[in-house]
Every structure is written in C-alpha cells, then in structure tokens.
Amino acid sequence: MGQLSVTTCESWRTGTGFLIEPDLVVTAAHVVQDATSISVAFGRTSVNATVVGTNDVVDIALVRTDRPIQGHQFQLRSSEPPVGTDVAALGFPLSRPFTFTKGTVSALDTEQDIGDRVLRNLIQTDTAINHGNSGGPLITQDGQVAGIVVTIEFDEYTRAEGIAYAVTAPRVAAAVNEWKSRSTPVAFKDCGNAPAPGSGFFPFTVSADHDQARSVGQSLLLHGQGINRAAYTAAFKLLTPELQATFGDASTWSKDLGSSYWTKAEVIDVTGTPSADDLNADVNLQTIQNAADAYRGTGQTCSNWKIRYSMHWDGTHWLIAGTSLPFGDPTAC
C-alpha cells in the first residue's frame, strides 16, 4: 500500500494507491488531478512518481514510480462481487496511519453526482470511508480488489453515514491494460515560477519512532515539494495561520526562495506527548541555493541543516508553526 502526497499550484492533497506491478500504482484520478509533483510513501521512504494514464470521467489513474517497489501486488477481480459480499477498505484516511475497515457490498451499478459530473456503474458499500482513502482498494475476503474507493455520499449540507462508492475492478483493469505500456508520462502542471532543476524530487525518509512521525513527515514532504515545484501558495498553506500572518502572504514569504531547493530530508526525531496538538520534529535537511541567497552570507551553495520544526495539529493536518536551529547554523555540504 502506498500513501500519495500530491502538490498542486494552489494547494495539496493526500490519498491512497496500491501496487499492481513493481513500479505501477493504481489510484483515483481526482487524487492526482492538476499535480505539480507526486510522491508515494511505502513504509518510511517516499519515491517519486508520474502519471501515465488518467480518466476523470470514471475517476481512475495509473502512476509509475521512479524505481521498482518491493511489496504486495494486488490482483483485480474479473467480475463484480454480489450484493452482501464482505469487503474491506485499505488506506490512509485523514492523512493518518494505515487502516483496515470492514463492511459489505450494499448495491451494484449505482451512480453518484460529484458536482461537475456523474460517476456511474459504481459499487456501493457501507464500509467506513474518509478523505485520504480515495484511490485505495476495496478488497474481498480472498484479498482481490473489487474496486477503487472514490467518494462518499454527501450533499451541500449533510454527509451520509455508511454510504461510499468504488469504481469496479473490471473497469479499472480495462483502463490499466491500456495505459501500462505507455512510456511518456502526463505532464505536471507549471505554476509559472522557477521550479527546481529536473523533476524537483528529493529523497525523503522518516526514521523517528513517534506514532505521529509519518503524519508529521508527510506535511513536511508536501511543504518541500511545494518549494521545489515553485508551488509557493501550496507550500505556504502548510504554515499555521499565525505563522502565515508574520509574513503577510505567500508572495512575501517566497520572495527569497527563487534559488533555494530541498535535495534530501530525513525526520530523525519527533518529541511530545502522542495525544498532544503540538510536537517538535528534528529534521536533517540538505538544500542547494545560489551563493547570494545563502544563510547569513555564508556563500554556501549546498547546505546541511538540522532544523527543529514546531508542528501544530489543526484537527485535520500537521502544520508548521515555526522553525529554529538549536543545533547550530548549517554547514557546507
């Protein structure tokens, strides 16, 4: 199972995907829509990914990782499961750790109006589904994929309990078989600024043992992706409102970032009470920048930092509340 971290020019989102081949991950199209960058976390390490096929009408997408992944490869069912079949949803709801929720198939050949279009020929299930589950597999007891989780029942005022939907496995298989031989990826969105050289991807690892370490790490990863892809509005939204206010707006905050990019990061320690809304994350970070933009006139074009990020839980995500350098200034690479 993979947890997707997707940056767009204006914001960011998370979702779920599952391996069908060592370098191919199936997810929902709306998870990767308008992406400027995509990382997929398998365990404590994130890998770069690109979209090789997407269909917004049926909400299916296929992404390719930049290297093969060792992990369970899911099999797609050749037929829809009967009503009453026991199923389970696997995924990362609300950016939290991996979950397994059980339910049944409630109905077949259903449809759901999602605002700008209608999704048809869906599986309806009473399995507990939340934001972040999107793109994850709905599996039967034999471990085969019955469908891709895509949405829940909602309208402008209410959210129904126990009503969620998945795209059927046969429809997924047809799309995937068409796309998986493609060698040219779907182009990432251009935010109009100066992105990092190449793809802007940087290796990201979480080695801290705290139970919130991966969730904290995901927010920092999204922040770094935003910086590297010049998606400054998205990166700015990962600061708390209080920290945002000290800068004024995203343009002011990002004015000195034009030549600064993340090249490697590792969350080495997270401290604080697991149930608390405020934690500290110590991160080993490597950056590159022009000599003129180096920290305090050091002239470093490559810097190794050990930064302490103050993180605040806003009820949905971990946001950056501040930074400090308790271990000293950055050193040259």
Question: Secondary-structure map with pairings?
Answer:
Elements: E1 2-7, E2 12-21, E3 24-27, H1 29-32, E4 37-42, E5 45-55, E6 60-65, E7 86-91, E8 99-113, E9 118-125, E10 137-140, E11 145-154, E12 159-168, H2 169-179, E13 204-206, H3 213-228, H4 232-236, H5 241-247, H6 250-254, E14 261-271, E15 278-288, E16 302-313, E17 318-324, E18 331-332
Parallel strand pairs: 13-14
Antiparallel strand pairs: 1-2, 1-4, 2-3, 3-6, 4-5, 5-6, 5-13, 7-8, 7-10, 8-9, 9-12, 10-11, 11-12, 14-15, 15-16, 16-17, 16-18
Structure description:
- The protein is 14% helix and 43% strand.
- A hairpin with a 2-residue loop joins strand 2 and strand 3 (24-27).
- The protein has helices at 29-32, 169-179, 213-228, 232-236, 241-247, 250-254, and strands at 2-7, 12-21, 24-27, 37-42, 45-55, 60-65, 86-91, 99-113, 118-125, 137-140, 145-154, 159-168, 204-206, 261-271, 278-288, 302-313, 318-324, 331-332.
- It contains six helices and 18 strands.
- With 333 residues, the protein is mostly beta strands.
- The relative contact order is 0.14.
- The mean pLDDT is 93.
- The strands form two sheets. A six-stranded antiparallel β-barrel has the order 1-2-3-6-5-4.
- The general outline is globular
Strand order of the largest sheet: 1-2-3-6-5-4
User: How much helicity do the residues have?
Assistant: 10-25%
* First-last Cα distance: 34 Å
Structural class by sheet pairing and helices: mainly beta
- Total beta strands: 18
- SSE succession: EEEHEEEEEEEEEHEHHHHEEEEE
Give the biggest sheet: 6 strands, antiparallel, barrel
* Quaternary state of the chains: single chain
Chain-averaged pLDDT:
93
Q: Count of DSSP helices?
A: 6
- Contiguous uncertain segments of 5+ residues: none
DSSP strand content: 35-45%
Cα-based radius of gyration, to the nearest Å: 20 Å
